[in-house]
Amino acid sequence: MTAHTWSVPETEVVQSIRDHLDGRAGDPEGPPAVLATVVGVEGNAYRRPGAKMLLGADGEGVGAITAGCLEEDLASVAERIRETGTPEVVTYDLMDDDEDVWGLGVGCNGIIDVLLEPLTETYRPAVDAFETGHDVAVATVLDGGDGPLVRGDRAYYRPDDGTLRTPDGDPASDEWPAGLAGPAGDLAGRGRGDTLVFDTDGTTVEVFVDGVAAPTDLVVFGTGHDVGPVTELAANNDFRVTVVGFRGAVDLAERFPAADRTVTTAPGRLADEVRLDDRTHAVVMTHNFVDDRIVVEALLDAGVAYVGLMGPRERFEEMLEAFADEGRQFSESELAPLYTPVGLDLGGGSPYQIAHSIVAEVLAVSNDRDPGHLKEREGPIHERVDVGDDGGNGGNDGAGDGVDADAPTQ
Amino acid sequence: MTAHTWSVPETEVVQSIRDHLDGRAGDPEGPPAVLATVVGVEGNAYRRPGAKMLLGADGEGVGAITAGCLEEDLASVAERIRETGTPEVVTYDLMDDDEDVWGLGVGCNGIIDVLLEPLTETYRPAVDAFETGHDVAVATVLDGGDGPLVRGDRAYYRPDDGTLRTPDGDPASDEWPAGLAGPAGDLAGRGRGDTLVFDTDGTTVEVFVDGVAAPTDLVVFGTGHDVGPVTELAANNDFRVTVVGFRGAVDLAERFPAADRTVTTAPGRLADEVRLDDRTHAVVMTHNFVDDRIVVEALLDAGVAYVGLMGPRERFEEMLEAFADEGRQFSESELAPLYTPVGLDLGGGSPYQIAHSIVAEVLAVSNDRDPGHLKEREGPIHERVDVGDDGGNGGNDGAGDGVDADAPTQ
C-alpha cells in the first residue's frame, strides 16, 4: 500500500467498484473483490462511517479506511470472506498504547467497526446514483436480530421520490423498518453514514445507512494555463468537473485530463450544452471581458449555487456598468452567489496557490461553511446526528479527523 | 506548452534555472537559456511582477508569465536574445478586443513589460539564496539613462546584513542608487517585485527589484497515509517540506516523493535533526497521543510560527491535562501559534479534502491572512507599494489575479 492509495479521491474508489462489477478489474471468473465499509467509530480512528476500501482478490486495495492502522489486517479478513461468501462485521479496538500491534508504527485510537462483504450486483445502484448525479442512501443490514432480515440484505432509499427499493428496483418489503426513510433522506443529502438501531415487532434490527451524495458539479469556463491546476485540484476534491471553452477551442480533453468532461461551444449557447441549475458551481476565468460577462449573466439567470469570477473587483464593477448599459440590473439576492475576486484570502500569488484558494472557496461554499480556522469555530466539535428514537450512534461522533463537517457553521 | 507548464510551483522554475546554470539541462555548449521576468503590469495580465519563465534553447519553457497570452511570442523574442546576447525589455499591449492576436483564443487585458535576458552566472546568487533559505532582493537595471549603469547590470540586496553586493559577492559600486536599500528590503521579505525609478546625478535610472523570499519551511510529523496528500499539496504551494517519522520509520523518501527532505529520529531528539525557529510551520499528525504531545511541546518551546495539530479539540484538552500533570503550563500567548483542530472549515471529509483544508490554513497563516472570502475583504483590492519618492509602479497594481496578497488583512 502506497501513500497514493490513501490520497485517491472518493470518486476513484467508486470507479474501482464499477470496474470490478463490470469485469474490467480483477479476474471476472475468480473470487469477488471484498468491499470494506466503516460502519461505526469511537475515538480517533480518523475516517468517518461510510469510508470505503475495495480489496481485490489480487491483494490490490483502493481507498483506505484508517491512516494505515489496520488495512493490512483487513486483507486477511477479506481472504476469509472470499472463501465463505458471507458478510462480516469486524470490530477493532485500537488502543493508543498498542500502537505497534499493526506493525506500521502509526498510533491509532479508538474502536472501529468494519463491514466486509463480497462485492456483488446488489451494490450497483449506489454506483449508478453516483454516476447519474442523484443522492441515495444505501441501507445494509448489519444484524437482523430474530427477524427475517439478515446481515448483508440491502435496500436503497431515494430522497427525491421517497421510495425504498431492492437492488433490483422493486419496492422493498415491509420487513424493512418503517422509520428508516427520515434519517436515510437526511444522510443521503449530506453524504454521511450512520448505524441505526430499530426496535420493531419485538426484535432489534441494526442497519447501516450510507448516504451517497451525488458529486457536486463544477463548471470551469476558460482554457488558459491557469485552468489546469483548478481542474486538477477540484477533481481531487471530488468535484465532477466540466471545462468549457469557446470559439473552437481544441484538445481540451487532452489539455485538462482531470476534467470529467470538456465542452467547446459558443457563449450564447451555454444552456444547450451544460446543465446549469441550483446545484451547479462555476468558476469563470476566460480572461475575456465579453465572454465572462455573457457567462456570468447566464449563470446568474440560471440561479446556480456559486459563481467565482476571476479578476479584480473593479473589473466586475465595469461589468455591472456594461450590464446597466444594456438595461440589465441585478438585485442583491441575484448577486449573492457571485464571488469576485474569486477565492479565499490565503495570500498566495503563484498559479497553483491561486487555484488552491479557488478550490478551497468552492469547497466551503458547496458545504455551506464559513471558511475560518477550525480552531476558532464556536460550538461543539462533535455533534450527534439526530435520528429520533432509533438510537443512531452519531454520524461523526468520535471520528478524529480535524475537519468535522457535522458541526454548525459559526 | 501544456497545462502542466503553467501549474509548476515556483520552486520548480528556480530548480530549472539551477539545472541550466549547472549544465544539467539544455546543451551546456549551446546557446544559453533565456530568462523572462515580468517587470511591469497594468490591467488584467494575471501574473505579478517577478513572475518568471525560463526558455531553453530547445524550445522547452518552464513556468509561465501570463495565462497563455504571449508565451508563444516570447519564444521568438528569446531566439533573438540568444543571438544578440543583449537583454531587452519588451512591452505587450494586450487589448481585450484583440484576444485572438496571440492565437490561443485566450483574451488578455492590459499592458505587460517583460525583461528577457540570457541566463548567466549573475543570477546564481538568487538561486543560492532560495536554496539556503534567506531572503534576497535581485536588483536589475532596466534603463541606465545617461549614467554608467546599463540594462542587465545586477546587484543583490540582503536585508539580513543590509549589504548590496555584485553577483561575485563584492560590495556594489556607488553607481547604484542610494535609495535602493529600503524598498529592496521590504520587497525581499514579502517576495514581491517592483520597478523603481531613481533620479540621481541628473539622470533617471530604472531598476527592477525582484524580492526572492526564501520558501517557507513546513515540517510534517507523521508517516500515515494521510501525510501523502498534505506533503504533495504543500510542495505544490511552494513550501519546503520535511517529513519527520519516528521509531525507525523507513522508506519515507520513497513514500513521500514530494518532500524535500525526510528524517527518521526519536521524538526527544527533534531539535538535533530539524531546524525549529520562528519561521517554521509544522503539522502534527502522528496519530499517537504521546508522540504528538512531545512534538507539540518541542514546537511551542521553539517558538515556531504555526503548529497545526490533527485531532478533535477534546484530544488537545486531554493533552493539556497531561502537560499539567507534569507541571507544564502554557500561557495564552504560548498557545497562539497552535491550531487544533487543524485546517480551515471547508466541510470536506475525504483525506484529500482534509489535506486541502490543512494546506489552505498553513498558506493563510504563513501569509498573515484572515482566510475569509476575497469578495468580503474590506479595503481596496489594489494597494500601492510605498517606495517613498522613487515612484515605484506598485507591486500588484493592476495585476488581475483573484488573490491579491498586498491588500491588508480584514
Question: Could you explain how this protein is built, in words?
Answer:
Chains A, B: Residues 156-185, 370-410 are annotated as: Disordered. Chains A, B: Residues 218-362 form the XdhC Rossmann domain. The structure is a homodimer of 410-residue chains. Chain A has three domains: 3-119, no CATH class; 134-214, no CATH class; 217-366, NAD(P)-binding Rossmann-like Domain (Rossmann fold). Helices cover 28% and strands 22% of the residues of chain A. The first copy, chain A, contains twelve helices and 16 strands. Chain A has helices at 3-7, 10-21, 71-84, 124-132, 181-190, 227-236, 252-255, 270-273, 289-301, 313-325, 332-335, 351-366, and strands spanning 34-42, 52-55, 61-62, 88-94, 110-118, 136-143, 154-158, 163-165, 193-200, 203-212, 217-221, 240-246, 261-265, 281-284, 306-309, 338-339. The first copy, chain A, has a six-stranded parallel β-sheet, sandwiched between helices. A five-stranded antiparallel β-sheet of chain A has the order 3-2-1-5-4. In chain A, strands 8-7-6-10-9 form a five-stranded antiparallel β-sheet. In chain A, a hairpin with a 5-residue loop joins strand 2 (52-55) and strand 3 (61-62). In chain A, 54% of the residues are buried. The model of chain A is unreliable at 1-7, 97-107 and 380-410 (pLDDT under 50). The interface between A and B is large, with 110 and 110 residues.
